[in-house]
Amino acid sequence: TLQAEQAKRIGETMEEQKKNQRKDRGFAIFCAVMIVLVLLNTFVVKLAIVDGRSMYPTLHDRQLLLVLRMGSQPRHGDVVVIHTGDGLLDRTYIVKRVIATQGDRVKIDYDTDTVTVNEIPIDEPYLNPEEPDPMEPRDGQTVVSLTVPEGTVFVMGDNRNHSADSRSEKYGPIATEKILGKVILPQVSVN
User: Fold this and answer.
1) What pTM does this model have?
2) From the candidates 8, 18, 19, 96, which is the catalytic residue?
3) Distance CA 142, CA 136 (A)
């Protein structure tokens, strides 16, 4: 019986060791998954939530977005997330559409509601159709012209009358290093 009792204790000890190994393995897998998720969020993709109506009807308030971190220069028509905060810890962002890139000549005619890039009017089927005048003049101006400076892009919201964007003194042309990424997959709304 002493041998049976010792064998039982040895068996219990071995079983306890196996449980601890499974727990350790589970914790290691959990840690590895968390590290991969943090790396993906930091360098590849990020989730973002739309706050406001400046991109309506393309994007809606409280809509969840998947943002692909930029690995290349933004292109005309890209919908991008831009960091507008002061410093790394200030997590303030805006979502806008790239209208023009460095060196492009932009002309906005509020009387005809047209935007031209390099003297070519751009087709903008994404503008808010609910507005009787989709592009009301800003600051009393009827025509605005500029050449996009090097290292920047000119962005505008799709809901032009409700968008603070490159037309405003607050933002102006956006430095490309401020672009967090490109919106690649609009998701469902979060309520």
Assistant:
1) 0.77
2) 96
3) 9
